[in-house]
């Protein structure tokens, strides 16, 4: 394919000139130096004449070098007129060296035409649509003119033309007789399994082919008499469409017929699909690599394949001149066709491959695939100013910081421009030089782009004093620099974020453990990449768009992903238990664990005054959330933690302390665990801080909490797990035996009923399937029951139980498998199937259906597995490993295809979603313009219940009267009729309806409170917590709701500013 350049003011006949010949004719006309504006590039087909004009000479020599000088052979594929591949030699065409000469083309004239393997589909489609005798399109004249008019219509876009062409193909396939020459036409197909490219025409097959078949029989009458077996072969006889024949047919096509078949005759006629000449690419793109031993060289695959094409081509020419038998010419032609196809695509299926040879890296392989030109060198490439090493944890770093080794900081530099504000700092860096951190490696004078002065040599003091404003100092990476941090595989946006540098000793990158989840990182040997932006613009964009603070929540659904995990959750759970009390000294010591040197912490009143003042763990946690009164984090929310007793549903009086309640930043009740401060929760503390107060407050909480956790476990309270923590007691062993015995008895009863044929059938199942379903249910409940008993027998101080309940690691299922029983092993969702003759293993009887014979593991990991149980357990584990490996590849490829299909979609200034062709995909994003990242717990822009709680606590308005029933509804109707709310229509109609519905529910609660109480004091108290609203509270409620809704809109900049106003 060759590019064509089109100019806006060019004449009609000059619109489709090749780029190589458009340099003087299209962009700058001869004699006219006025530049023309290029409107677009049009790719087309190179004809044989185009190739000959583009090339410098015809390549005919089969030699690479001339001996003994070993210089490139003249008229060979390494001729210096095609360019050079080393830095010393000079191009014989332009007299330039490798740095300035991109090379020049040559061409090979083929002895016989060949099919282009990349155009085979197009060639077959065209042959199917034209008569194989007169080359006319197989449509009647009226249809042809109608389609030609549609194709020439400038309003018909690419999709329209594609649809028209498909209809033309369908019609042509049904026309078996040419409407112009009345000759029959059959199906055209490619011969599959052939060692080379072959196209056949089924000329003698079908209802309309009787005359052709009769003519064939008449012509072979004599041969059939001497060899009767020929008659059997005639039933499957076809006509070979050789490249020469196809070339004649395509050349005979008219321009109008070309347009009907969606082929522009000005861009490339059909005959250009057949190769008569081959371009020889420049030498610089296929360089020779000199060998250290022997003085030889390793040649590129393209060079080797071109040499083979020349050898086969010359041999074919010699055979043709000597007028040998047809068989010899056809064999040589097939070899030439195969070599040309491999030169274009070395991995094409169906072509003959040489055994033991590596795959040919043809032109297609250079472009496509992960290692190709686009994905390997353009979209993704190796870059400078990057580093990679092992990662490790450091809870003392902020969540937006990354610890960088000094060794890395000395090598990676940033070009900082000298100004009057940083002059002294940069002079100090220059004096330190490249070996002392923080120092500098190079100085580039103002206006100098290529030359830089190294500070490894010379007088650095003199260089520092000679610094002038505008000079650029390549200084070391230092604290506060913005870097991009990335862990592969990069599966989503948060796999690469920006951090601020903190230069530290040792050899690993370190960062806060709260940031592990976005990167999917752990510290068992993982490595990560770091990139240092080199311009102020890049630093600013990275800091504003990619900073960890701006990416705490995942854009998928808005759930916080940068959050506490593992031992941080265990610390919060243990700290906020009801029995945690501290003296003043210990309380102040704990508070000092998370405080900065310049941060003031207010010590609250003790929770217990007599006999001695004591502070609770909940108060310590409150200080972490809200260190002092200057911190405006008035957090108000309620939620149910993992250990909440949902059976009794006593909220604040939950016996497990599982109901978390915050009032104005103070933890009133609840045992903090994963739902409150972990990832994936839109009802917890982190999300409330992020949504109501901003990412800075959420990040500051995580910074303080991570420092506290490391010191609390390390210096105040240890947390470890040993074999004694999962050792079952005698009581537990007896319970397990009783549970398993009862379960085995029920399983045996079901098996007995199956054998007697009296088992009740399940819907849609036969007898055996019904039995398997029943047994799966029985055996599945065994492990669950044993696990529940194990959890009940464990004390509250048991570390595996603590980790399972707070969500830091593991689950009750893991504890059950360690202490009680591993349970039923499944392969493909079913019990273990028979692998030997009518049994799973030779250890069991034939046709055995008992639990132990079908994969039930009664032992625990503590007691140890028997031999058969171990085999069954490995069967289930093997399926998990295979699924992980297979699904990773499949989901990765699916995600890549999806991203490639969606990557051109963008939000435009009219608030519509369009693709690269400006086609409207959605008139408003998601039909409501709401961003999933900004949605709250109920998948709506505002959680009204939490907002009501927050407003009532922050604005108690004790002296204001309560708005009751009609007063409240009228107030809401008046407020929603204001311009600030009416401007949200029509997309905000659902939001306004939800506000009205919420206040109608409030009015209903007020009516219920009024009906159930006759005392005004009692009515006031009942309304205070659930449905009390004053005028100020309603105004504040609507103001905050409108702000949250506006922030949740995904609009273009202009529309967003209008909403803010």
Automatic annotation (TrEMBL):
GO terms for cellular component: DNA-directed RNA polymerase complex; nucleus. Its EC number is 2.7.7.6. It is found in: Nucleus. One of its GO terms (molecular function) is metal ion binding. Residues 271-576 form the RNA polymerase N-terminal domain. It catalyses: RNA(n) + a ribonucleoside 5'-triphosphate = RNA(n+1) + diphosphate. It holds the Pfam family RNA_pol_Rpb1_4. Component of the RNA polymerase III (Pol III) complex consisting of 17 subunits. PANTHER family: DNA-DIRECTED RNA POLYMERASE SUBUNIT BETA' N-TERMINAL SECTION (PTHR48446:SF1). This is DNA-directed RNA polymerase subunit. It comes from Cyclostephanos tholiformis.
């Amino acid at each position: 394919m060759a590019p064509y350049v089109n100019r806006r003011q060019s004449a009609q006949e000059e619109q489709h000139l090749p780029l190589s010949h458009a340099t003087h004719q299209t962009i700058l006309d001869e004699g006219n130096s006025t530049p023309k504006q290029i409107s677009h590039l049009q790719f087309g087909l190179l004809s044989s004449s185009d190739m000959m004009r583009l090339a410098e000479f015809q390549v005919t020599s089969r030699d690479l070098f001339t001996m003994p000088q070993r210089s490139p052979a003249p008229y060979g594929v390494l001729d210096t007129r095609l360019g050079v591949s080393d830095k010393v030699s000079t191009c014989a065409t332009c007299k330039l060296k490798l740095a300035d000469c991109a090379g020049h083309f040559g061409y090979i004239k083929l002895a016989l035409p060949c099919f282009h393997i990349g155009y085979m589909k197009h060639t077959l489609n065209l042959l199917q649509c034209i008569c194989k005798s007169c080359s006319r399109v197989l449509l009647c004249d009226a249809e042809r003119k109608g389609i030609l008019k549609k194709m020439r219509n400038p309003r018909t876009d690419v999709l329209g033309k594609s649809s028209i062409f498909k209809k033309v193909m369908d019609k042509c396939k049904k026309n078996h007789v040419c409407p112009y020459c009345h000759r029959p036409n059959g199906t055209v197909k490619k011969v599959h399994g052939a060692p080379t490219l072959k196209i056949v025409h089924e000329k003698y097959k079908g209802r309309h082919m009787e005359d052709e078949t009769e003519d064939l029989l008449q012509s072979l009458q004599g041969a059939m008499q001497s060899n009767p077996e020929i008659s059997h072969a005639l039933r499957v006889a076809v006509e070979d469409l050789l490249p020469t024949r196809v070339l004649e047919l395509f050349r005979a096509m008219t321009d109008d017929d070309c347009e009907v078949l969606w082929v522009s005759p000005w861009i490339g006629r059909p005959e250009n699909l057949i190769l008569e000449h081959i371009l020889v690419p420049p030498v610089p793109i296929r360089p020779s690599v000199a060998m250290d031993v022997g003085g030889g060289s390793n040649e590129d695959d393209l060079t080797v394949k071109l040499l083979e094409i020349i050898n086969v081509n010359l041999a074919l020419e010699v055979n043709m001149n000597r007028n040998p038998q047809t068989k010899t010419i056809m064999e040589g032609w097939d070899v030439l066709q195969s070599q040309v196809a491999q030169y274009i695509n070395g991995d094409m299926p169906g072509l003959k491959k040489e055994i033991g040879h590596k795959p040919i890296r043809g032109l297609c392989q250079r472009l496509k695939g992960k290692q190709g030109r686009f994905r390997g060198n353009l979209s993704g490439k190796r870059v400078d100013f990057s580093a990679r090493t092992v990662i490790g944890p450091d809870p003392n770093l902020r969540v937006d910081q990354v610890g960088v080794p000094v060794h890395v900081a000395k090598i990676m530099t940033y070009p900082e421009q000298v100004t009057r504000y940083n002059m002294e700092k940069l002079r100090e860096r220059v004096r330190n030089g490249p070996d002392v951190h923080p120092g500098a490696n190079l100085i580039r004078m103002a206006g100098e782009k290529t030359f830089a002065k190294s500070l490894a040599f010379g007088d650095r003091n003199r260089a520092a004093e000679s610094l002038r404003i505008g000079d650029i100092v390549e200084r070391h990476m230092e604290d506060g620099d913005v870097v991009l941090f990335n862990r592969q595989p990069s599966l989503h946006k948060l796999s690469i974020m920006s951090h601020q540098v903190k230069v530290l000793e040792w050899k690993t990158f370190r960062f806060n453990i709260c940031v592990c989840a976005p990167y999917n990182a752990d510290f068992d040997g993982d490595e990560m990449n770091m990139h240092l932006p080199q311009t102020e613009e890049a630093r600013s964009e990275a800091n504003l768009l990619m900073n960890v603070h701006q990416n705490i929540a995942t854009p998928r659904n808005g759930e916080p992903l940068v959050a506490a995990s593992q031992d941080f959750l265990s610390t919060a759970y243990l700290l906020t238990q009801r029995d945690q009390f501290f003296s003043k000294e210990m309380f102040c010591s704990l508070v000092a664990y998370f405080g900065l040197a310049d941060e003031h912490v207010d010590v609250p009143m003790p929770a217990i005054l007599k006999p001695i003042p004591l502070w609770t763990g909940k108060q310590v946690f409150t200080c972490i959330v809200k260190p002092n009164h200057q911190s405006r984090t008035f957090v108000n929310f309620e939620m149910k933690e993992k250990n909440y007793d949902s059976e009794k549903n006593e909220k604040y009086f939950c016996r497990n302390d599982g109901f978390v309640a915050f009032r104005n930043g103070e933890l009133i009740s609840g045992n903090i665990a994963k739902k409150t401060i972990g990832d994936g929760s839109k009802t917890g503390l982190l999300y409330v801080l992020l949504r109501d107060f901003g990412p800075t407050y959420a990040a500051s909480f995580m910074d303080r909490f991570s420092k506290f956790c490391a010191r609390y476990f390390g210096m105040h309270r240890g947390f470890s797990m040993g074999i004694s923590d999962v050792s079952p007691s005698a009581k537990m062993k007896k319970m397990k035996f009783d549970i398993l015995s009862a379960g085995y008895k029920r399983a045996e009863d079901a098996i007995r009923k199956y054998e007697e044929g009296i088992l009740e059938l399940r819907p849609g199942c036969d007898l055996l399937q019904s039995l398997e379903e029943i047994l799966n249910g029985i055996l599945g409940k065994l492990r669950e029951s044993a696990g529940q008993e194990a959890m009940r027998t464990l004390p509250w101080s048991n570390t595996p139980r603590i980790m399972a309940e707070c969500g830091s690691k593991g689950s009750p299922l893991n504890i059950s498998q360690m202490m009680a029983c591993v349970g039923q092993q499944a392969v493909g969702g079913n019990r273990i199937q028979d692998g030997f003759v009518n049994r799973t293993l030779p250890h069991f009887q034939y046709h055995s259906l008992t639990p132990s014979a079908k994969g039930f593991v009664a032992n625990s990991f503590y007691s140890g597995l028997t031999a058969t149980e171990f085999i069954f357990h490995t069967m289930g584990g093997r399926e998990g490993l295979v699924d992980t490996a297979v699904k990773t590849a499949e989901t990765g490829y699916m995600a890549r295809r999806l991203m490639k299909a969606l990557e051109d979609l963008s939000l435009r200034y009219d608030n519509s979603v369009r693709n690269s062709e400006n086609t409207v995909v959605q008139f408003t994003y998601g039909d409501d313009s709401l961003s999933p990242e900004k949605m709250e717990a109920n998948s709506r822009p505002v959680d009204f219940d939490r907002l009501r709680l927050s407003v009532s606590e922050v604005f108690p308005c004790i002296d204001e009267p309560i708005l009751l029933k009609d007063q409240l509804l009228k107030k809401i109707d008046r407020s929603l009729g204001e311009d600030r709310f009416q401007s949200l229509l029509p997309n905000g109609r659902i939001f306004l309806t939800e506000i009205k519905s919420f206040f109608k529910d409030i009015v209903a609660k007020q009516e219920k409170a009024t009906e159930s109480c006759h005392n005004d004091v009692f009515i006031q108290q009942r309304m205070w917590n659930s449905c009390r609203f004053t005028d100020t509270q309603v105004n504040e409620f609507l103001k905050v709701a409108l702000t949250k809704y506006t922030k949740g809109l995904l609009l273009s900049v202009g529309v967003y500013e209008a909403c803010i106003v």
